[in-house]
Structures are given as C-alpha cells and as structure tokens.
Amino acid sequence: MQTPLKNAVISLVLHIIVLCVMLFGFKMGIYSVVYSNILFALFMCILNGMAISRYLNYRQEMKKTFILPTIASGIMGGAAYGVYQLVHMTLKSNTIGVLLAIAVAVIVYGILLLKLRCVDEVELSGMPGGTKLVRIAQKCHLM
User: Fold this and answer.
1) What are phi and psi of 60, to 5 degrees?
2) What does the DSSP 8-state code read for residue 92?
3) Where are the alpha helices (DSSP H) in the chain?
4) In the prediction, which pLDDT does 143 show?
5) pTM (2 decimals)?
C-alpha cells in the first residue's frame, strides 16, 4: 500500500519542479499548468509500472502497447487538424469543423490500430461490438 503513495509523492515533487521551470523559466503561463499536469500523470504511470514489474516479475510489451499506438495517435492528430483547418477555411464553421475532425480522427485511429497490428482479431472480438467490427475489418481487408 505504501508504494503507490511513494510514487505519488515522487511524481508530485517532479510535477512541482517541472511546473516551476515552465512557469518561471520558460514563461509559459497557464500552459505550464496543463503540461505539468500531463507529466504528473505520466510520472505516475511510469513509476507504478516499474513497481508492478518489480513485484510481479512482469515485463510489459513496449512496441504493441506504447510505441505503435503513439505513432497512430500522432497521425490521427495530424489528420484531425488537417480536416478541421480545411473545413474551417472553406465553411468558416467551428462546429462542423470539429465534428468532422472528430469523425475522421476516430476512423483514422481505428484503421491505424488495425493496420499497425496494435489490436488483433481475438482482442477486437473480445470488446463490446467487437465481432461486428471484426467482420467489417475483414470485409475492408484491414485484418
């Protein structure tokens, strides 16, 4: 029970250091709060993951769990940004731009997860509505 608490204290100290550096060193204003909060969660995940692997002799598979989904999310973000900018330039509508960008982001991310083999057929079929998604993915030659 003490390990998560220790990890939280370590993450909090790192969070405060990063916040001060961004706030006073880089003069990032409110963005320093946003970024340091994101980093706090990242520090917690890393420290808790290290503790789990230490206590359970468990080794997390890195490529399929972290690297490929990060690549997919970067591409997805670029696609969503591009769609939003294109719609906003042509129609001058934030609402339509955001809605289309979200729709494209969901589709692009789903396709990339399948094409990069982040999710296989067994994992996908175990999700709610997964058997239907497996059939669609197979018809579209994504699996």
Assistant:
1) -75, 135
2) -
3) 2-20, 30-56, 62, 68-91, 94-115, 121-125, 130-139
4) 87
5) 0.77
